[in-house]
Amino acid sequence: MDIKVLGTGCANCKATIALIEQVAQAKGVPVTLGKVEELREIMGYGVMSTPGVVIDGKVVHAGGIPSRDKIEKWLGA
Amino acid sequence: MNARVELPPAREVCPTTTRRLLGEGALLVDVRELSEVAQLAFDVPGVLLLPLSELEQRYAELPRDRQLVLVCAVGERSLKATYFLMYQGYTQVANMEGGIMKWARKGFPIRGTAQAAAPAATNCCFAPAPARNGCC
Fold first, then answer.
1. Which positions in chain A touch B86 (Cβ < 8 Å)?
2. What is the spatial distance between Cα B68 and Cα B32, in angstroms, rounded to a whole number?
3. What is the pTM of this model?
4. Which ipTM value was assigned to this complex?
5. Which of B14, B72, B124, B125 is catalytic?
6. What distances in angstroms separate CA A50 from CA A33, B18, B75, B80, B88, one per listed residue?
7. Do residue B126 and residue A49 have CB atoms under 8 angstroms apart?
């Protein structure tokens, strides 16, 4: 599962990455986790509110830190 | 949800070029919040106010067949707005780098006082615009 977190590096984006890492590890789900930090690239997904989360090329979340529940659903965990 | 688009770098123009474009029929679109505009505004006929917070809902109000120049306080939010419009297929869009602060520093027409206009808190996660070699 390829996961990208969109955002230019503020606290919410860092928290989102950390949370996804945590949940993936706890549930034993293999993920490749990457950051998209450049504005032009972020806007290429049409995401106005960051952090955004893209899974296998699809935007699944935009704005605020996603809840643990939501992340577990994405990971099918 | 959103399909991914490879966006080219946004066109950025300095305040001087912006004035020329306005003379040629371009539309100035100010994406600051109305409270900011109340303190300091572009003194330009026909400037359109469309706060960034409402852009996603209201962008269809913006003409596609006319040159648009997006502006804000320092040119960061307007750059985001420019990219958003490009994502939506607008081709005649440009960001005015430096925002109203640069416009005011150059002595271009404003209403209100530049000191009053500290940029409003933007969304979380917003990188400063990279340095540009403008024409000014």
1. 43
2. 15
3. 0.87
4. 0.89
5. B72
6. 16, 29, 18, 12, 18
7. no
- Nearest-by-CA chain A residue for B129: A39
Contact B125 A48 (CB under 8 A): no
Q: Which domains does chain B have, with CATH numbers?
A: 12-111 (3.40.250.10)
CB interface of B with A, residues 76-105, below 8 Å: 79-80, 83-84, 86-88
Residue A60 with chain B: CB contacts under 8 Å: 1
Give me B111's structure tokens: 């209403």
Q: What does the mean pLDDT of chain A come to?
A: 95
A9-39 confidence digits (pLDDT tens): 889 999 999 999 999 999 999 999 999 999 9
* Mutation for B interface: A43, A55, A58, A60, most B CBs within 10 A: A43
**Phi, psi of B85, deg, nearest 5:** -65, -40
Amino acid B76 reads E
Q: Which two tokens stand for residue A16?
A: 């989102």
Full 3-state SS string of B12-33: EECHHHHHHHHHCCCEEEECCC
Which domains can be identified in chain A, with CATH numbers?
2-74 (3.40.30.10)
Which residues have C-beta within 8 Å of that of residue B54, sequence separation ≥ 6?
Answer: none
